[in-house]
């Protein structure tokens, strides 16, 4: 008898709570669209992202940095790689101004699925003269997935697609 009474009370409590939850006003969905000018920095790092197990000296590496309204939209290291070593952006202070492209990007990665994630920090300190970028970079890691690197970096800032990047109409 007591068990039945408690189950009845529990059912009533659930119904009352469900009714109150249903009565809560639902917020309108918010759709955020990117705003502001878009730019791409095509950079060449003197010795870029290199897997920790690679024995040869690191060679130059391309880095594409997409910026929306002067803030990081994406960063893409261009290099052949094996395994599951994606870099996900965690935080960024990278900013494009009339005088510079400077700041840091904190990434996280894992050498393989199920592996412990590790941090990778990219710091750029590039001066801007028109569409030319020159300065220095540093990649700081704990050495488990990628090696630490630093050196000179140069590049070009584009605010419109280069003619060589255009796709023919048949591509779409």
Protein architecture, described:
This protein has a single domain, classed as Lipocalin (Beta Barrel). It has one helix at 2-23, and strands at 38-45, 61-68, 71-78, 88-92, 95-96, 100-109, 118-129, 132-141, 149-158. The protein has 1 helix and 9 strands. With 172 residues, the protein is mostly beta strands. Strands 1, 2, 3, 4, 5, 6, 7, 8 and 9 form a 9-stranded antiparallel β-sheet that branches.
Pattern of helices and strands? HEEEEEEEEE
Poorly predicted sequence stretches spanning 5 or more consecutive residues: none
Overall, the morphology is: elongated
Name given to the CATH architecture: Beta Barrel
Output mean pLDDT: 83
Q: What fold name stands as the CATH topology?
A: Lipocalin
List the helices and strands and how they pair.
Blueprint: H1 2-23, E1 38-45, E2 61-68, E3 71-78, E4 88-92, E5 95-96, E6 100-109, E7 118-129, E8 132-141, E9 149-158
Antiparallel strand pairs: 1-2, 1-9, 2-3, 4-6, 5-6, 6-7, 7-8, 8-9
């Amino acid at each position: 008898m007591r068990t039945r009474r408690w189950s009845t009370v529990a059912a009533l409590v659930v119904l009352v709570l469900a009714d109150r939850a249903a009565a809560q006003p639902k917020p309108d969905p918010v759709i955020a669209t990117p705003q502001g000018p878009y730019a791409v920095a095509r950079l060449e790092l003197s010795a870029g992202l290199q897997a920790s197990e690679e024995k040869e000296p690191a060679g130059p590496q391309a880095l594409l940095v997409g910026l929306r309204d002067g803030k990081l939209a994406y960063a893409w290291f261009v290099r052949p790689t094996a395994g599951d070593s994606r870099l996900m952006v965690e935080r960024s202070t990278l900013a494009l101004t009339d005088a510079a492209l400077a700041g840091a990007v904190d990434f996280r990665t894992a050498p393989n699925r199920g592996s412990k994630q590790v941090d990778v920090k990219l710091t750029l300190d590039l001066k801007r003269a028109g569409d030319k970028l020159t300065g220095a970079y540093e990649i700081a890691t704990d050495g488990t997935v990628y090696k630490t690197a630093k050196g000179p970096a140069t590049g070009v800032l584009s605010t419109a697609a280069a003619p060589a990047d255009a796709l023919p109409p048949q591509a779409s």
